[in-house]
Amino acid sequence: MGRSPLQHARFRPAREVSAVPDPGLVEPITLRELVIANRILAHEGILDAFGHVSVRHPEEPSHYLIARSLGPELVTEGDLQRFTLQGEQVGGDPRPPYAERAIHGAIYEGRADSMAVCHNHAPSVLPFGVTHVPLRPIFHMASLIGPEVPVWDIAEAFGETDMLVRTIEQGRSLARTLGARRVALMRGHGSVVVGRTLREVVMTAIYMEQNARLQAQAASLGDIQYLTAGEIERASAMLLRSLASDRAWETWRRRAIGADSAREVKGAS
Predict the structure, then answer these.
(1) Does 268 score more than 50 pLDDT?
(2) d(C-alpha 162, C-alpha 185), whole Å
(3) Which of 100, 109, 200, 209 is catalytic?
């Protein structure tokens, strides 16, 4: 069967950047959705000047796509770079990459089911990584975080550091704590969110942050009635259907970018 025109399309930065090579065959839809994911997560307060989101390369599973070192709100298609799972850049783009790309490579390496990863410092979530209070879903939209959210402490294996995940060994340690879950917290740092699609990752990250705020509020009122295992399973299955995930994505996309997103995600000519 012949390849579609989309599959033949090549990544071309919208703005000419000298010495920045073509990172390979990538569907335009994938590039656009990665940019939109950056914009949504920034607009919804999950990412600020720091944090990042990536997607596994759709045709080369041992590679992934992520923006250069740039605030997520500013990312366009011309800012995307390609890396191996070991964090080596493919193509020779001279612009600095994210220092913590090992988070993404290690998770893709250990999780064949993972197609997208987000690392963030959402403020409402951070307290649950530095206390003995577990983050648990208290409402149906947060069922995606699962019944148990583990906490990874970089100091346990690597001693005192600057808290950043700079090496593939550190990334693999984090990935082991994450296991088969969608979410793991990082003590004194933030969290990682993993999913089968960018839309799943965006939805999980947004509702995890909302759940953290609501759980803290509920705790001030008294004992909390958390979702049961059965409720978590049924509610998360409902949210992962395209009817729900597409509805949420379009709402957040419109809020972050507007009705006409084509020019915004490509960058100014």
Answers:
(1) no
(2) 17
(3) 100
